[in-house]
Amino acid sequence: xxxxxxxxxxxxxxxxxxxxxxxxxxxxxxxxxxxxxxxxxxxxxxxxxxxxxxxxxxxxxxxxxxxxxxxxxxxxxxxxxxxxxxxxxxxxxxxxxxxxxxxxxxxxxxxxxxxxxxxxxxxxxxxxxxxxxxxxxxxxxxxxxxxxxxxxxxxxxxxxxxxxxxxxxxxxxxxxxxxxxxxxxxxxxxxxxxxxxxxxxxxxxxxxxxxxxxxxxxxxxx
Length: 222
Known about the structure:
mainly alpha, 9 helices
C-alpha cells in the first residue's frame, strides 16, 4: 500500500492465509510435479519453476482467481444477492454450462481429498468473516459466498442427480481475503506459490537425498 499501513487484524489475516495455503502432502499436482522433475536430476530452480507452472493452472492454485471471476459474474447477473432461489437458479445455470465460462464448475467447491470438510477453509472462512464485519459491502459479499457454499450440494443434485458429498475448499475464500486486503488479482497465485515453496523444497530434498531413480508414471493409452 502507498502508506504502508496495515491493521494487526489484516497482518494476522495474511499470516493465516499463508499457513493454510502451505504445502499439505505429496499427492497434489504441484508437489508431485516437484518430485517427478527432481527425480530427473535437474536443478532446484527448474524443479520449482515446474511446480509453479502446475500451480498456476485454474484447477489448482489458480482456482482462487477463477472463484473471483465466477463471483463477479454471479454478482453481475443475480439481482438480489440475498435471494436463495435466484442465487441457486444461477448456480445451476453455471453447472449446466449455460453461464460463466461454460466449464460447468462451481469453483472453490469440492476437493479430491477433503470431502466432508476442508480444515484450511474452515480457518480461513472464520478469519474472513471477522475481517468482513469492518465493511458493510464486504459483509454483504461474504454472505453471498457463504450462501453459494451452502447451496452448491443441493444445486449439484438438481443438475447431476447425484448426492455427492462436497465442501468448500481453501480457494473459495482466499481470493476474497486477498480482495479485502487490497492485493491485486495478478498476485493471488504468486502469493499461493510463496506459501508452497518451502514444502516443495522439502519434497525435493526427500526425493534427491532419499531416492535415486527417475520417476516414470505408468500409463495406458486407450
